[in-house]
Amino acid sequence: MNGALISVQARHSLERVLRRAVESRLVLTDDDSCEITRLETQPAPVADEDVVVVLTISSMGFRYMLFLRFRDDAASASYFARGNGSNLRDTLLELGNLCCGAINQDLVRHFPDLGMSTPYLLGGQSLRHVDSLRPDYRANFDVAIGTTVRVGVTMCMFTRVSVDFQLGQEIEEDSSEGELELF
Amino acid sequence: MGEYLAGALLGAAITAVPAWLAWRHNAGRMAAQAQATQDSALASRDQAQAELRDRIAQHERDKNALASDIRRLQETAAGQMASIDQLGAELAASRQLQADALRQARQIGDETKRLRGLADTFERWHEQMISLMARNRAMHEQNMELSSIVRHVVIVSLNASIEAARAGAAGRGFGVVASEVRALAARSEALSKSYGDSLHQSDLTTTATFQDIQAGGKMVTASLASVALLAEQFEAAYQ
């Protein structure tokens, strides 16, 4: 890890970008509460049935990876796929795409040359090996939506260049309600 | 007779002298008048000549000034002609540069359009990743099958140990074999678990690598599109 390349304000900005994306894309109705907790330790052990949606945003000097761990339980299926379990996989991929797209949308204001991958679904056990990729920065979060749905979120940054940016106030105040925003 | 003649002559002389005197006086006055007239005429002529000379001199000066102006204007015109020629040459050079720039802009546009074919390369890599991941999934399934077999072998070996124990001394040798099989099954189970773990790690590494390639490809494609757009705008602006 060479975390020195990523400034403290860049880390804070990345966290704010992630929180904005999660709140705007993973919370499906306005009435649902959403509590995002930064985990200072490794995330809870994953069950074999958990699935992880993986996405990557690449620039010339760095890449950013987002891992969304969804539990394979009735509460998650009910919330995200509205009980239609057969579509859960596609729904989770689409949600991951939207979430990472929102992150990409914020980052592209500071880093003009970005490209985003398509989402990919991995087994939950893969998440245990994230450190083997040797990220320069990693942050884990536990997201509680409503009272029953829990999502694990991990973001990583790998860089060969210095990364420093500050999320603008105008972005913070910018409404994220627009569902037709492009990314 | 002579007296009469002399008297006549005298009388004539007496008459002629005053007349001559009068004539002379009159002639002198007339001569003076003529002289005065002549002097006046001469003075007027001299004045007119002087004025004429002045005017000639003035005209000469004006002519010289005009000649000087003409020379200056000719020099200026010559300078301007040189400038026009230079500007013409520069304009021609500029047009040449513009034509070159336009040609290069078109080349850049064409080249970037050609390089958009890279998207197919990135897509091919992505398909290879899908293929690799499908292979990994098959290996996961094979490993799960192996794990299932190993668990079954453990159970079988346990049963064999029990049966060997029931057989007493006769089954002692069989018991040793069953125990050995159970140990091998345990090692196989550990190996299978480790292999499964490696497969998960391989999944992650493969995904991370190919997603980076895919996202990087999109970044390159988008950048190429921007360059193509700039080239088109340049071409449109300077055409």
Description:
The complex is a heterodimer of chains A (183) and B (239). In chain A, a hairpin with a 3-residue loop joins strand 6 and strand 7. The longest helix of chain A is centred in the middle third of the chain and has 20 residues, at 88-107. In chain A, strands 1, 2, 3, 4, 5, 6 and 7 form a seven-stranded antiparallel beta sheet that branches. The two termini of chain A are 30 Å apart. Chain A has helices at 8-25, 74-80, 88-107, 169-173, and strands at residues 34-39, 51-58, 62-70, 115-116, 120-123, 137-145, 149-159. In chain A, helix 1 (8-25) packs across helix 3 (88-107). Chain A has one domain (3-40, 48-160): Chemotaxis protein chec (3-Layer(aba) Sandwich). With 183 residues, chain A is an alpha+beta fold. By secondary structure, chain B is mainly α. Chain B folds into two domains: 1-85; 97-238, Orthogonal Bundle (Helix Hairpins). Chain B has three helices and no strands. The longest helix of chain B is centred in the N-terminal third of the chain and has 114 residues, at 2-115. Classes of the chains: A alpha+beta (183), B mainly alpha (239). The interface between A and B is medium-sized, with 26 and 24 residues.
